[in-house]
Write a structure and sequence with these properties.
With 246 residues, the protein is of the alpha+beta class. The chain contains eight helices and seven strands, in the order βββαβααβααβααβα. Strands 1, 2, 3, 4, 5, 6 and 7 form a seven-stranded mixed beta sheet that branches. Helix 2 packs antiparallel against helix 3 and helix 6 crosses helix 7. The two termini are 25 Å apart.
């Protein structure tokens, strides 16, 4: 399933993204990108010894890299509509009148808090690049763009990109930071939110093709309903829940 970029808005022609395939962003120049969503560490709450240890481990992590990477911090207004809707459903189904009253009072409190305060949530991403020029020229030298990759060529490039992903994940784990790569659906939603920050419509997975078309995605490979990131980290779980509501 593909979307022709000629049917996309004219501004989309200036985007560098040519294709998203199997959780990998392919640029128009043939470069590959993996995007990792990470948890965070509250550095200010650490003791002086813990802070020094984190700085040392971060320095060691940077020194271990033989490739560039990009750290992206994205701030968005917190969207709690789905959360409030779920609370309202619980209140309606609650048989205990006291619990029903307390739930509705809590809903009113959250709504008033949102109205009084501009609650901002931060999301942290790491973008890991890989270029075909770093591979054997005999296999990839004649290719000029990602749209020309065969499946076998793409899998070979992706395996080399994922070696870097694993290296970054291991390095971040030493700093108590959890990092997981975004899948295709999550990448589409991320790009949509980045290019449409003022759009507060909550897009669901069944509308992912519309999202791809709205950002001018040239050839979105629909791999079905991909599972969301699985993690036991409370910080990552909270970030993912809020991320999916945007």
């Amino acid at each position: 399933m593909a979307i022709n970029i000629r049917n996309a808005p004219p501004s989309s022609r200036f985007l560098e993204v040519a294709e998203i395939r199997n959780g990998v962003v392919i640029l128009k120049n043939g470069g590959l990108r993996a995007v990792l969503m990470t948890s965070s560490v509250n550095f200010a709450l650490k003791s002086a010894i813990e802070q020094e240890s984190l700085v040392f481990r971060y320095q060691s992590f940077l020194n271990s890299l033989d490739f560039p990477l990009q750290i992206v911090v994205n701030s968005r207004q917190l969207n709690l509509d789905d959360y409030l809707l779920s609370l309202e459903e619980r209140a309606q189904n609650q048989e205990n009148e006291l619990l029903k009253l307390q739930t509705r009072e809590y809903i009113d409190f959250v709504q008033s808090l949102i109205q009084l305060s501009n609650i901002i949530s931060k999301y942290f991403y790491i973008v890991i690049p890989f270029s075909p020029s770093e591979s054997a020229k005999g296999l990839f030298g004649s290719l000029s763009g990602g749209l020309h990759y065969t499946q076998s060529q793409f899998e070979e490039l992706k395996s080399q990109l994922w070696q870097r992903v694993k290296h970054v994940q291991i390095g971040l784990e030493a700093m108590e930071i959890r990092a997981e790569p975004l899948n295709t659906t999550e990448l589409i939603e991320l790009f949509y939110n980045l290019y449409n920050p003022a759009d507060k419509m909550r897009q669901k997975k069944q509308n992912v093709m519309e999202l791809a078309q709205s950002i001018g995605q040239g050839d979105f490979q629909d791999m079905g309903d991909e599972a969301p990131l699985e993690t036991n980290d409370p910080g990552m779980q909270a970030a993912q829940a809020s991320h999916q509501q945007q």
